[in-house]
Each structure stands twice: as structure tokens, then as C-alpha cells.
Design a protein that fits this description.
Layout (H helix, E strand, L loop, with lengths): L1 H30 L4 E7 L11 E7 L7 E7 L5 H9 L4 E8 H10 L4 E5 L4 H14 L6 E3 L7 H12 L15 H8 L4 H10 L10 H4 L3 H12 L4 E4 L11 H20 L6 H27 L3 H4 L14 H4 L4 H23 L8 H18 L7
Antiparallel strand pairs: 1-2, 1-5, 2-3, 3-4, 4-6, 5-7
Helix pairs in contact: 4-5, 10-11, 10-15, 14-15
């Protein structure tokens, strides 16, 4: 009887202990939700640094039940000129920042940016690994990186992490695209004539290669498309931009070049007069426009270690020596004729090399601009001097 009583007490004690364990652990088990990962991609904004969109990854877990978002596109945008110079020099300093999902979405709503969300279909282990990778990147010793528009940016960093935790799903079987890197840059800058003009003149032949789908994921929109196609994560529109994309004020730059071309034509008309004042003014304008443009292109190719900015075939079209035209306006026509003959001969060689496929950049627009300015002057100067 005593043995039976002791057995009952032991069973009661065990049952009570088990109940106590369940009471303590069940709430914790209920709160231990699996890690979830969401990819957010944003459409372009109005400022220059937002023309290609943006991307961020948000993690939801026990640590952040309302979501924490990792943004690899953080930089000091309050100083755009120094930042642009550092990017040009190949040492742009960007870093990963962490914010709540609600704060991030509020910021992009305030900026009137279209926002897409994709829930990544990851296993618990893959989601945990992705969260660990992002947290490691956010540490003070790891958070900074050197920005490169095509290779190291807010989208490529996320691409690499998602690819790693999915066993190379984004990297597998890349498809070569018909568009070139230059085409993609031009599409991003199409609403801003100045940025479009600068990209056409400053970006070299390396940008005329055709990327594959893996390389093209430097663009957030391509990343979104590939994540949807390869992982089955359909994009959901969170917010839609209300205003139309604003057109930049860079049309003044195009207007300045057009004005220079008109002055070139005016110089031809001036050559018909005896005083030649208009011709001299026109020739000075042509020399300044072409010469300064060439100096900018040369300077960028010289100071930048970025491959896409160095090998620029426009160095054969735009020459700083055109600045001498401003000084030739006061002399006799012999020196001017000789210079123009050499200049046009060089442009003919460049055009021939382009037709033969030796040069790959789309140089016809800059080439036509130079010819519009120089050819009329040459044919008029060929028979007379500028000065009386």
C-alpha cells in the first residue's frame, strides 16, 4: 500500500513537472515564428541618384517581428558634387543601413516612389542564413563598401546574398540580353537631357557590351523580374507613384550645343561680308564649345580608374586642340585651312573605323555635331582668309 502511494505521488509529481514545462515553453514556442524575407524594389525618383530605382531586403523574425530592412544604397547624398567625384574616382563610399520596415516604406511614400514587395520562398534554414548574412554586413567593420554602378550597388549586393542561400538559383543559366549596358543607362536618364548627354559623352566602349541576366541585375527592376521568374516570388505593388517623372533642366546643355552649332552656321554667313566680325565670333564659339567639351571628356578618362569611363572612343572625335580655333579667328586662313583639313581627315578615318566595326561606341551623334560646326567653316575658308 505504501509502495502504491509513493508511486502515485511520483506520477503526480512528474505530471506536474511536465505541465509546468509546457506552461513555460509553449508561449516561447508560439512566439518563435520562422524567419521570413521580403525583397522590396523601388521605382525611380526625381533626383539623379534615384534614376535607376532602389532595392532593399527586409527580415521578420523574433528579433524584429515588425521587420527590419537592410539598405545597401546609403551614402552622403547631401553633398552630391563630392559624392559624384568620389564615384568617378572609383572610391565612392557607400554603406548598409538598417531601419524598420514601416520607416522605410514611409520614406518612399513621401518620396512618391513606386514600391514592389516580393516574399522570398525560402526554407527556414535559408531564411536564417540570409538574415545572418545581412546582420554580418551591418556590423561596423563590414558595413562600408566601394560603389560601382554596374558591379557593386544596392541591387547586386542583395542579388549575391539571395543567390547564395538558394544554391545559385539566380546565377544559373544566365541569358544574354539584347540591350547593352549603355542602353540601360540611357533608359534610366531619358527624362534628364543633361544626364543623358553626359552619359553618352563620358561612358566608354566597355558599356557597349551586352550583359547577361546575372550582370543585368544591377538594375532593381531586372532583379525583381529574375526573382519572380526563377524563384516564383510574384511582385506585389505596395505603393504607386502619383506624379509623372519630372524632366530635368539639363535641356540647357543641349541648347548650348545647338547654339554653338548655329553660331557655326552664322560664321559661314559672316564670311560673305567684308568685315568678317560675325565669322570671328562664330569661330570663337565653335572653338570654345568643342574644345571645352573635349577637355571634360579627356579629364574624366584620365582621372577615373573605372573601366567603363576610361576607354572612350570619343577621344578620337573630340579634341582639346579645337580650342585653338578661337585664336585662329584673328589670323589669315592658311593655318585655319590646314588645321581643318587635318581635323576632317581624322574624322573621316574615325567614321571608316566605325563602319568597319573597329570602333563600337555609338559615335554618330557626336561626330555629326562636330561636322556641323567644322565642315561649313572649312568650305568657306578654303577660298578666303578670315581677317581682312
Amino acid at each position: 500500500m505504501l509502495a502504491f502511494s509513493g508511486m502515485c505521488r511520483a506520477r503526480a509529481l512528474a505530471a506536474g513537472s511536465a505541465f509546468l514545462v509546457l506552461v513555460v515553453l509553449l508561449p516561447r514556442l508560439a512566439l518563435s515564428a520562422p524567419t521570413a524575407a521580403e525583397l522590396y524594389t523601388m521605382g525611380p525618383g526625381d533626383d539623379a541618384f534615384s534614376k535607376f530605382g532602389h532595392a532593399a531586403l527586409c527580415i521578420t523574425d523574433d528579433r524584429s517581428p515588425h521587420g527590419r530592412c537592410y539598405n545597401y544604397g546609403t551614402a552622403d547624398f547631401t553633398t552630391p558634387v563630392p559624392l559624384a567625384w568620389e564615384v568617378l574616382r572609383g572610391r565612392g563610399r557607400f554603406w548598409v543601413s538598417v531601419t524598420s520596415r514601416s520607416d522605410m516604406l514611409d520614406a518612399y511614400r513621401a518620396g512618391d516612389r513606386t514600391v514592389y514587395k516580393q516574399v522570398l520562398p525560402l526554407s527556414r534554414e535559408a531564411a536564417d542564413e540570409l538574415a545572418a548574412r545581412l546582420a554580418r554586413d551591418a556590423r561596423p567593420e563590414n558595413r562600408f563598401y566601394t560603389y560601382h554602378h554596374f558591379k557593386e550597388n544596392c541591387a547586386t549586393r542583395l542579388r549575391d546574398h539571395i543567390d547564395a542561400v538558394t544554391g545559385g538559383a539566380l546565377h544559373a543559366s544566365p541569358v544574354r540580353l539584347e540591350s547593352t549596358f549603355r542602353d540601360m543607362v540611357r533608359a534610366g536618364f531619358q527624362a534628364d537631357p543633361l544626364l543623358l548627354l553626359l552619359s553618352d559623352f563620358l561612358i566608354g566602349r566597355a558599356a557597349d557590351l551586352q550583359p547577361n541576366t546575372w550582370e543585368a541585375m544591377f538594375l532593381p527592376e531586372i532583379l525583381r523580374e529574375e526573382v519572380s521568374r526563377r524563384l516564383g516570388a510574384r511582385p506585389e505593388v505596395v505603393f504607386t507613384r502619383k506624379a509623372a517623372e519630372s524632366v530635368g533642366a539639363g535641356g540647357w546643355a543641349l541648347g548650348g550645343l545647338a547654339f554653338g552649332a548655329m553660331l557655326g552656321a552664322a560664321s559661314v554667313a559672316g564670311l560673305r561680308s567684308r568685315r568678317h566680325l560675325l565669322a570671328k565670333v562664330g569661330l570663337v564659339a565653335i572653338g570654345v564649345v568643342l574644345g571645352l567639351t573635349a577637355l571634360v571628356v579627356d579629364a574624366v578618362a584620365l582621372v577615373s580608374p573605372v573601366r567603363e569611363l576610361r576607354g572612350n572612343e570619343l577621344l578620337l572625335v573630340l579634341l582639346p586642340t579645337d580650342l585653338m580655333l578661337a585664336f585662329m579667328s584673328s589670323g589669315r586662313g592658311r593655318m585655319l585651312r590646314g588645321y581643318l583639313m587635318a581635323r576632317l581627315a581624322m574624322l573621316a578615318l574615325v567614321a571608316s573605323a566605325t563602319l568597319l566595326g573597329l570602333l563600337v561606341q555609338p559615335i554618330w551623334y557626336p561626330l555629326a555635331l562636330v561636322l556641323v560646326m567644322l565642315v561649313p567653316v572649312y568650305f568657306r575658308v578654303a577660298g578666303r582668309a578670315l581677317a581682312p
